[in-house]
Amino acid sequence: MLFHYHYWTPYLEETERFYTKLGFTVHQRIGRLNGSFQSFNPPLAWEDFRENTPLFRIIEMKKGKINVTVGYGKKVIFDHIGFFVSKEEHRMVCGKARNLGWKVEEDERRTFLSTPYGFRIELQTHLDVLASGDAAIEEMVICVSKEGLEKDINHLFNKDVPVFSVMDEESKLHQVVLNGIGNGMDPNGVRLSDTKKESVN
User: Fold this and answer.
1) In the chain, what are the domains?
2) What is the value of pTM for the model shown?
């Protein structure tokens, strides 16, 4: 199940505000302040640390089966998408990724696959990355500079996966279809839509 995307961005507060207005809940904020990583989780708000803003490594927001994370970057950089998988699916996908020659980084918390398309794929098996509710990612459209994304992802998961590509010089997340959320564009240029790729221009 497609559940997640992550960006590095200078627009952290704006991104958090945008998604909370859509009904997302902030679950954690981890940032570096005075030389060490600390938690700035709710009920803390931006007003509580704005004068000495941490260098945020991650801000995690959830709504139903959608998990969006951002971390500080000097410019907007698309990092990865995530799939929630069973342990059996995890073994299968990792094996197929290795056969494709992709780098596979596994640890107890999550696994990352380095794709040749300018972004990574996260495999997640822990239920705590999801919240309760029906909200879900139905489809993604990703800008890539190389052909073959759909073929490779469908091969990894041994089924049709709702991830599609459009050609561009830069890898970036073009559109995400989120059920029940409607249309708009987040501060990082990600188009949120209730219209699937047939209508994407």
Assistant:
1) 2-199 (3.10.180.10)
2) 0.92
